[in-house]
Amino acid sequence: MELQQVRYVLAVAETLNFTRAAERCLVVQSALSHQISRLEQELGARLFERTSRRVRLTPAGEAFLPAARQCLEAAERAAAEVAAAVGEVRGRLAVGLIPTVTAVDIPAGLHAFRGRHPQVRISLRVGASDDLIEQVRRGSLDVAFLGLPPTLRPPGVTARELARGRLVAVVAPDHPLAARRRVSLRTLAAEPFVDLPAGTAGRTQTDLAFNAAGLIRDVAFEVSDAAYIPRLVGPGLAVAMLPAAYVSRLTGVAVVEVSDAPTRVETAVWSRSGRTPATAAFLDLLGIPPEAPTA
Question: Are 47 and 100 found together in one domain?
Fold first, then answer.
């Protein structure tokens, strides 16, 4: 089994198309197909079902993928460690973040990092804290920047607290509450809300605050991306609660302090198995030191 064969299998598994997989791997399709066939012969099982209309993984292919990813990641990490030993930072840096991160300037950090380490392949994924934690655990992300309730300790990863801040209310500019300097959760509970999906880390902090106050609110709109929340607040469809440090960047909405607002903790997480050379270099550049794993 050769690493290149593993790369070809993963590319087909991700695209479910031999032509697109060959383009991604910068190889002609016939060569990619031939190498996958050789691997299937060595394994004694078909990894893909191929018809004129579609490609899909067989049960054997599904079983092959997790170990294949680990194998490829281990090989890439070994090469990166060797490069680091001779003073070079290479390999990949896969960064995840939620849209409302403010404790660190990710674009500026990546710009500086790219200037210092041009040999590193960088990818950036924006998503929800829960999904990003899982991707760090699986190894598909090297580091992620999250927003969590103070009581939540992300399991299975190393965590470093970056900053704490309170949530504020965000309302339409012509909303009656826009003229207020401060409101309470009880006042806000009478308004329709837009928020993240129930059960997500970004939603939990607000739900816990209302539950602790014995209040029920109407979440009339759920969105998967916090960056879209102001688009519904501005026209007056709903109100929302967002991190105070983040709302300073918004336009077209009014911000009101909340007297009994919940706190959000911005956190960086990375693998418990340690920081890759590229991850260590990036976190050092951001001024984030290592920390013992958090259970």
Answer: no
Are 176 and 238 in contact by the 8 Å Cβ rule? The answer is no
Phi, psi dihedral angles at 235 (to 5 degrees)? -75, -5
The string of pLDDT tens digits covering residues 240-253 is 999 999 998 899 99
Give Cβ neighbours of residue 159 (< 8 Å, ≥ 6 apart).
153, 267, 268, 269, 291, 293, 294
- In angstroms, rounded to a whole number, what is the distance separating the alpha carbons of residues 274 and 50? 39
The enclosing domain of 57 has a CATH number of: 1.10.10.10
Q: Which of 84, 110, 133 is the last residue of a domain?
A: 84
- Global pTM reads 0.72
Question: What are the residues whose beta carbons fall under 8 Å from the beta carbon of 253, sequence distance 6 or more?
Answer: 170, 171, 172, 173, 230, 233, 234, 247
Structural domain count of the chain = 3
**Is residue 200 helix, strand or coil?**
coil
| pLDDT (tens digit per residue) in 182-227 | 999 999 999 999 999 998 888 998 999 999 999 999 999 999 989 9
Domain span at 278: 88-151+266-285
**What 3-state DSSP class applies to 41?**
helix
